[in-house]
Amino acid sequence: MLEYYEEIKSRIVARDEEIKNILATLDAGKHLILEGPPGTTKSTILRTVTDVANIPFYIVEGNVDLTPSKLVGHFNPSKVMADDYRREYFEKGPLTRAMEGGILYIEEFNRVPADTANVLITAVEEGELAIPRYGVVKAAPEFRVVCAQNPFDDVGTMRVSRAIYDRFCRISLGYQKELEEREIVRAKTGATDERLVRIAVRVARETRRHREIKQGASVRGAMDMVAIAEELRRGLTRLSGGKPPDDELEVLRPAMLSAMSGKIWLDETTERTPEAILDEILRMVLSQPEFQEDDPGPNDPDGGDDGADEGGSRNPGSPEATESDEGRS
Length: 329
Ligand SMILES: Nc1ncnc2c1ncn2[C@@H]1O[C@H](COP(=O)(O)OP(=O)(O)O)[C@@H](O)[C@H]1O
Ligand SMILES: [Mg+2]
Fold this sequence. Notes:
Blueprint lengths: L4 H5 L6 H12 L4 E4 L6 H12 L3 E5 L6 H5 E3 L1 H6 L7 E3 L1 H6 L3 E5 L6 H13 L1 E4 L3 E4 L5 E6 L12 H6 L1 E4 L5 H12 L4 H14 L5 E3 L3 H21 L9 H12 L4 E2 L7 H13 L43
Parallel strand pairs: 1-8, 1-9, 2-5, 5-8
Antiparallel strand pairs: 3-4, 6-7, 10-11
Helix pairs in contact: 9-10, 9-11, 10-11, 10-13, 11-12, 12-13
Adenosine-5'-diphosphate (ADP) binds next to helix 3, helix 9 and helix 11.
Protein backbone atom coordinates (compact mmCIF):
# COMPACT_ATOMS: atom_id res chain seq x y z
CA MET A 1 0.00 0.00 0.00
CA LEU A 2 3.05 2.24 -0.01
CA GLU A 3 1.92 3.36 -3.46
CA TYR A 4 -0.86 5.32 -1.73
CA TYR A 5 1.57 7.17 0.51
CA GLU A 6 1.40 10.57 -1.19
CA GLU A 7 -2.36 10.64 -1.21
CA ILE A 8 -2.60 9.53 2.39
CA LYS A 9 0.01 12.12 3.40
CA SER A 10 -1.98 14.90 1.77
CA ARG A 11 -4.71 14.39 4.36
CA ILE A 12 -2.58 14.07 7.48
CA VAL A 13 -0.33 16.58 9.21
CA ALA A 14 3.22 15.20 9.55
CA ARG A 15 3.50 11.57 10.77
CA ASP A 16 5.54 10.73 7.65
CA GLU A 17 7.63 8.03 9.29
CA GLU A 18 4.73 6.43 11.08
CA ILE A 19 2.57 6.30 7.97
CA LYS A 20 5.32 4.70 5.91
CA ASN A 21 6.00 2.19 8.62
CA ILE A 22 2.33 1.31 9.01
CA LEU A 23 1.96 0.82 5.26
CA ALA A 24 5.08 -1.33 5.05
CA THR A 25 3.91 -3.45 7.98
CA LEU A 26 0.53 -4.04 6.37
CA ASP A 27 2.20 -4.69 3.00
CA ALA A 28 4.32 -7.34 4.69
CA GLY A 29 1.13 -9.11 5.64
CA LYS A 30 1.48 -8.31 9.32
CA HIS A 31 -1.14 -7.49 11.90
CA LEU A 32 -0.56 -4.43 13.97
CA ILE A 33 -0.96 -2.83 17.38
CA LEU A 34 -0.91 0.97 17.39
CA GLU A 35 -0.03 2.33 20.78
CA GLY A 36 -0.47 5.91 21.83
CA PRO A 37 -2.53 8.19 24.04
CA PRO A 38 -5.87 9.51 22.75
CA GLY A 39 -5.77 11.93 19.84
CA THR A 40 -2.48 10.76 18.36
CA THR A 41 -3.78 10.05 14.82
CA LYS A 42 -4.30 6.30 15.29
CA SER A 43 -7.83 6.10 13.92
CA THR A 44 -7.24 8.83 11.38
CA ILE A 45 -4.33 7.01 9.76
CA LEU A 46 -6.25 3.75 9.45
CA ARG A 47 -9.38 5.45 8.23
CA THR A 48 -7.40 7.35 5.63
CA VAL A 49 -5.43 4.31 4.47
CA THR A 50 -8.53 2.19 3.98
CA ASP A 51 -10.38 5.05 2.33
CA VAL A 52 -7.61 5.85 -0.14
CA ALA A 53 -6.83 2.19 -0.88
CA ASN A 54 -10.54 1.39 -1.01
CA ILE A 55 -10.34 -1.49 1.46
CA PRO A 56 -13.40 -2.42 3.54
CA PHE A 57 -12.88 -1.19 7.09
CA TYR A 58 -14.61 -2.57 10.17
CA ILE A 59 -14.30 -0.68 13.43
CA VAL A 60 -15.02 -2.28 16.77
CA GLU A 61 -14.88 -0.60 20.14
CA GLY A 62 -13.02 -2.81 22.60
CA ASN A 63 -14.69 -3.26 25.99
CA VAL A 64 -15.51 -6.03 28.44
CA ASP A 65 -18.74 -6.75 26.58
CA LEU A 66 -16.97 -7.62 23.37
CA THR A 67 -17.68 -11.34 23.36
CA PRO A 68 -16.31 -13.75 20.77
CA SER A 69 -19.74 -13.99 19.16
CA LYS A 70 -19.97 -10.20 18.77
CA LEU A 71 -16.72 -10.35 16.89
CA VAL A 72 -17.40 -13.47 14.84
CA GLY A 73 -21.16 -13.27 14.40
CA HIS A 74 -24.11 -15.36 15.46
CA PHE A 75 -27.12 -17.20 14.14
CA ASN A 76 -30.30 -15.17 14.23
CA PRO A 77 -32.10 -16.89 17.11
CA SER A 78 -35.68 -16.33 15.92
CA LYS A 79 -34.96 -17.60 12.43
CA VAL A 80 -33.21 -20.64 13.85
CA MET A 81 -36.16 -21.26 16.19
CA ALA A 82 -38.67 -20.96 13.37
CA ASP A 83 -36.69 -23.04 10.96
CA ASP A 84 -33.25 -24.52 11.51
CA TYR A 85 -29.58 -23.61 11.45
CA ARG A 86 -29.12 -22.46 7.89
CA ARG A 87 -26.04 -20.72 6.62
CA GLU A 88 -28.01 -17.71 5.50
CA TYR A 89 -29.28 -17.17 9.04
CA PHE A 90 -25.76 -16.45 10.22
CA GLU A 91 -25.24 -12.77 10.88
CA LYS A 92 -21.59 -12.09 10.26
CA GLY A 93 -19.64 -10.11 12.79
CA PRO A 94 -16.86 -7.68 11.92
CA LEU A 95 -14.10 -10.29 12.18
CA THR A 96 -15.82 -12.62 9.72
CA ARG A 97 -16.47 -9.76 7.32
CA ALA A 98 -12.91 -8.53 7.54
CA MET A 99 -11.60 -12.05 6.91
CA GLU A 100 -13.54 -12.01 3.66
CA GLY A 101 -11.33 -9.12 2.59
CA GLY A 102 -10.85 -6.09 4.77
CA ILE A 103 -9.27 -4.54 7.83
CA LEU A 104 -10.63 -5.07 11.30
CA TYR A 105 -9.81 -2.15 13.57
CA ILE A 106 -10.26 -2.68 17.30
CA GLU A 107 -10.07 0.40 19.49
CA GLU A 108 -9.18 0.22 23.18
CA PHE A 109 -7.85 -3.24 22.53
CA ASN A 110 -6.51 -3.62 26.06
CA ARG A 111 -10.11 -3.69 27.31
CA VAL A 112 -10.99 -6.78 25.28
CA PRO A 113 -11.55 -9.96 27.32
CA ALA A 114 -9.01 -12.74 26.91
CA ASP A 115 -11.36 -15.26 25.28
CA THR A 116 -12.23 -12.72 22.59
CA ALA A 117 -8.56 -11.91 22.03
CA ASN A 118 -7.91 -15.64 21.64
CA VAL A 119 -10.36 -15.83 18.76
CA LEU A 120 -8.32 -13.13 17.07
CA ILE A 121 -5.13 -15.08 17.63
CA THR A 122 -6.68 -18.08 15.92
CA ALA A 123 -7.86 -15.98 12.98
CA VAL A 124 -4.49 -14.31 12.37
CA GLU A 125 -2.47 -17.43 13.12
CA GLU A 126 -4.41 -20.04 11.20
CA GLY A 127 -5.76 -17.72 8.52
CA GLU A 128 -9.10 -19.41 9.01
CA LEU A 129 -11.83 -19.66 11.56
CA ALA A 130 -14.15 -22.60 12.13
CA ILE A 131 -17.64 -21.43 13.03
CA PRO A 132 -19.90 -24.20 14.33
CA ARG A 133 -22.81 -24.94 11.95
CA TYR A 134 -21.60 -22.27 9.53
CA GLY A 135 -18.33 -23.66 8.32
CA VAL A 136 -14.77 -22.55 7.92
CA VAL A 137 -14.10 -18.94 6.99
CA LYS A 138 -10.81 -18.53 5.16
CA ALA A 139 -8.93 -15.28 5.40
CA ALA A 140 -8.61 -13.32 2.16
CA PRO A 141 -5.12 -12.02 1.33
CA GLU A 142 -6.14 -8.46 2.33
CA PHE A 143 -7.28 -9.49 5.80
CA ARG A 144 -5.50 -7.57 8.57
CA VAL A 145 -6.23 -6.87 12.19
CA VAL A 146 -5.15 -3.51 13.57
CA CYS A 147 -5.58 -2.86 17.28
CA ALA A 148 -5.27 0.53 18.92
CA GLN A 149 -4.63 1.13 22.56
CA ASN A 150 -3.61 3.76 25.02
CA PRO A 151 -0.66 2.42 26.96
CA PHE A 152 -1.61 4.62 29.92
CA ASP A 153 -5.20 3.46 30.07
CA ASP A 154 -5.96 2.02 33.46
CA VAL A 155 -9.73 1.86 33.28
CA GLY A 156 -10.91 -1.72 33.08
CA THR A 157 -7.96 -2.87 31.08
CA MET A 158 -6.66 -6.36 30.74
CA ARG A 159 -3.01 -7.02 30.23
CA VAL A 160 -2.52 -7.73 26.59
CA SER A 161 -0.92 -11.12 26.57
CA ARG A 162 2.53 -12.03 25.34
CA ALA A 163 0.80 -14.33 22.88
CA ILE A 164 -0.80 -11.31 21.20
CA TYR A 165 2.34 -9.17 21.20
CA ASP A 166 4.25 -12.08 19.74
CA ARG A 167 1.90 -12.33 16.78
CA PHE A 168 1.39 -8.64 16.12
CA CYS A 169 3.76 -5.88 15.18
CA ARG A 170 3.68 -2.69 17.18
CA ILE A 171 4.06 0.95 16.25
CA SER A 172 3.94 3.64 18.87
CA LEU A 173 2.60 7.15 18.31
CA GLY A 174 3.37 9.99 20.68
CA TYR A 175 2.06 13.53 20.83
CA GLN A 176 3.01 15.69 17.88
CA LYS A 177 5.11 18.82 17.90
CA GLU A 178 3.51 22.10 18.83
CA LEU A 179 3.65 23.50 15.28
CA GLU A 180 1.99 20.34 13.97
CA GLU A 181 -0.73 20.48 16.58
CA ARG A 182 -1.46 24.08 15.62
CA GLU A 183 -1.71 23.03 12.01
CA ILE A 184 -4.13 20.23 12.88
CA VAL A 185 -6.27 22.61 14.92
CA ARG A 186 -6.33 25.19 12.10
CA ALA A 187 -7.17 22.54 9.54
CA LYS A 188 -9.93 20.92 11.56
CA THR A 189 -11.60 24.04 12.97
CA GLY A 190 -11.01 26.44 10.11
CA ALA A 191 -9.99 28.98 12.74
CA THR A 192 -8.08 32.02 11.57
CA ASP A 193 -7.44 33.59 14.96
CA GLU A 194 -3.82 32.58 15.35
CA ARG A 195 -3.56 33.78 18.93
CA LEU A 196 -6.52 31.65 19.94
CA VAL A 197 -5.07 28.60 18.19
CA ARG A 198 -1.73 29.08 19.92
CA ILE A 199 -3.25 29.54 23.35
CA ALA A 200 -5.50 26.49 23.01
CA VAL A 201 -2.66 24.28 21.82
CA ARG A 202 -0.35 25.53 24.56
CA VAL A 203 -2.99 24.94 27.25
CA ALA A 204 -3.56 21.38 26.00
CA ARG A 205 0.18 20.74 25.99
CA GLU A 206 0.61 22.16 29.46
CA THR A 207 -2.06 19.80 30.81
CA ARG A 208 0.21 16.94 29.70
CA ARG A 209 3.06 18.29 31.82
CA HIS A 210 1.14 19.19 34.94
CA ARG A 211 2.11 17.21 38.01
CA GLU A 212 -1.47 16.80 39.22
CA ILE A 213 -2.70 15.46 35.89
CA LYS A 214 -2.17 11.84 35.00
CA GLN A 215 -3.26 12.19 31.42
CA GLY A 216 -3.62 15.55 29.80
CA ALA A 217 -5.82 16.75 26.96
CA SER A 218 -5.16 15.64 23.40
CA VAL A 219 -5.21 17.85 20.33
CA ARG A 220 -8.97 17.29 20.41
CA GLY A 221 -9.07 19.40 23.57
CA ALA A 222 -7.42 22.25 21.71
CA MET A 223 -9.74 21.87 18.71
CA ASP A 224 -12.80 21.94 20.95
CA MET A 225 -11.52 24.96 22.87
CA VAL A 226 -10.98 26.89 19.65
CA ALA A 227 -14.38 25.97 18.22
CA ILE A 228 -16.21 26.90 21.43
CA ALA A 229 -14.26 30.13 21.90
CA GLU A 230 -15.14 31.27 18.40
CA GLU A 231 -18.84 30.56 18.93
CA LEU A 232 -18.79 32.25 22.30
CA ARG A 233 -17.06 35.34 21.01
CA ARG A 234 -19.57 35.62 18.18
CA GLY A 235 -22.45 35.15 20.60
CA LEU A 236 -21.20 37.64 23.19
CA THR A 237 -20.49 40.19 20.46
CA ARG A 238 -24.01 39.84 19.11
CA LEU A 239 -25.57 40.07 22.57
CA SER A 240 -23.78 43.31 23.32
CA GLY A 241 -24.87 44.93 20.08
CA GLY A 242 -21.72 44.28 18.06
CA LYS A 243 -19.13 45.05 20.70
CA PRO A 244 -16.65 42.21 21.22
CA PRO A 245 -15.85 41.30 24.86
CA ASP A 246 -13.16 43.54 26.43
CA ASP A 247 -11.54 40.75 28.33
CA GLU A 248 -10.45 37.72 26.35
CA LEU A 249 -10.75 35.63 29.52
CA GLU A 250 -14.52 35.91 29.19
CA VAL A 251 -14.15 33.76 26.11
CA LEU A 252 -11.04 31.70 26.79
CA ARG A 253 -11.91 30.51 30.26
CA PRO A 254 -15.36 29.01 29.66
CA ALA A 255 -14.24 27.59 26.30
CA MET A 256 -11.26 25.92 27.96
CA LEU A 257 -13.30 24.52 30.84
CA SER A 258 -15.96 23.14 28.55
CA ALA A 259 -13.44 21.68 26.12
CA MET A 260 -10.91 20.26 28.52
CA SER A 261 -12.25 19.64 32.03
CA GLY A 262 -13.67 16.27 31.01
CA LYS A 263 -10.64 15.27 28.97
CA ILE A 264 -8.02 15.37 31.67
CA TRP A 265 -7.51 12.61 34.22
CA LEU A 266 -6.39 13.94 37.53
CA ASP A 267 -3.88 12.19 39.64
CA GLU A 268 -5.62 10.34 42.50
CA THR A 269 -3.60 12.25 45.04
CA THR A 270 -4.79 15.72 44.10
CA GLU A 271 -7.55 17.37 46.06
CA ARG A 272 -8.10 20.12 43.53
CA THR A 273 -10.79 20.20 40.89
CA PRO A 274 -10.09 20.04 37.15
CA GLU A 275 -11.41 23.60 36.91
CA ALA A 276 -8.94 24.92 39.46
CA ILE A 277 -6.02 23.22 37.76
CA LEU A 278 -7.09 24.40 34.31
CA ASP A 279 -7.47 27.96 35.58
CA GLU A 280 -3.95 27.80 36.90
CA ILE A 281 -2.67 26.52 33.56
CA LEU A 282 -4.48 29.23 31.59
CA ARG A 283 -3.09 31.96 33.86
CA MET A 284 0.38 30.51 33.47
CA VAL A 285 0.08 30.28 29.68
CA LEU A 286 -1.18 33.86 29.36
CA SER A 287 1.73 35.08 31.43
CA GLN A 288 4.25 33.54 29.06
CA PRO A 289 6.04 36.28 27.11
CA GLU A 290 4.72 35.22 23.71
CA PHE A 291 1.14 35.59 24.91
CA GLN A 292 1.51 39.02 26.50
CA GLU A 293 -0.92 41.16 24.50
CA ASP A 294 1.54 43.97 23.78
CA ASP A 295 4.34 41.60 22.82
CA PRO A 296 4.19 40.38 19.24
CA GLY A 297 5.93 37.26 20.50
CA PRO A 298 9.04 35.51 19.36
CA ASN A 299 8.24 33.66 16.20
CA ASP A 300 9.01 30.18 17.38
CA PRO A 301 12.67 30.49 18.16
CA ASP A 302 12.82 26.74 18.66
CA GLY A 303 10.90 25.93 15.52
CA GLY A 304 7.90 25.05 17.65
CA ASP A 305 9.53 21.87 18.67
CA ASP A 306 8.11 19.75 21.40
CA GLY A 307 8.57 22.28 24.23
CA ALA A 308 8.28 19.48 26.76
CA ASP A 309 11.96 19.26 27.32
CA GLU A 310 12.65 22.75 28.59
CA GLY A 311 13.71 22.38 32.18
CA GLY A 312 12.75 18.75 32.19
CA SER A 313 9.34 17.31 32.64
CA ARG A 314 7.42 18.06 35.78
CA ASN A 315 5.46 14.90 35.35
CA PRO A 316 7.68 11.92 34.73
CA GLY A 317 4.74 9.55 34.60
CA SER A 318 2.97 11.39 31.83
CA PRO A 319 2.73 10.14 28.26
CA GLU A 320 4.54 13.23 27.01
CA ALA A 321 7.51 12.53 29.21
CA THR A 322 7.82 8.93 28.17
CA GLU A 323 6.84 9.42 24.57
CA SER A 324 10.15 8.16 23.31
CA ASP A 325 10.43 5.10 25.44
CA GLU A 326 8.51 2.10 24.36
CA GLY A 327 5.34 3.39 25.92
CA ARG A 328 4.80 0.52 28.25
CA SER A 329 4.56 1.44 31.86
N1 LIG B 1 -1.62 14.18 12.22
C1 LIG B 1 -2.90 14.58 12.11
N2 LIG B 1 -3.32 15.18 10.97
C2 LIG B 1 -4.60 15.59 10.86
N3 LIG B 1 -5.53 15.45 11.82
C3 LIG B 1 -5.17 14.85 12.96
C4 LIG B 1 -3.84 14.39 13.17
N4 LIG B 1 -3.77 13.85 14.41
C5 LIG B 1 -4.98 13.97 14.94
N5 LIG B 1 -5.84 14.57 14.09
C6 LIG B 1 -7.23 14.92 14.34
O1 LIG B 1 -7.41 14.84 15.74
C7 LIG B 1 -8.55 14.09 16.09
C8 LIG B 1 -8.14 12.87 16.88
O2 LIG B 1 -7.38 12.01 16.06
P1 LIG B 1 -7.63 10.42 16.05
O3 LIG B 1 -6.98 9.88 14.84
O4 LIG B 1 -9.09 10.13 16.21
O5 LIG B 1 -6.86 10.01 17.36
P2 LIG B 1 -6.77 8.58 18.08
O6 LIG B 1 -7.48 7.56 17.25
O7 LIG B 1 -5.30 8.33 18.20
O8 LIG B 1 -7.42 8.80 19.42
C9 LIG B 1 -9.25 13.78 14.79
O9 LIG B 1 -10.22 14.77 14.57
C10 LIG B 1 -8.17 13.90 13.74
O10 LIG B 1 -8.69 14.33 12.55
MG1 LIG C 1 -9.21 6.44 17.87
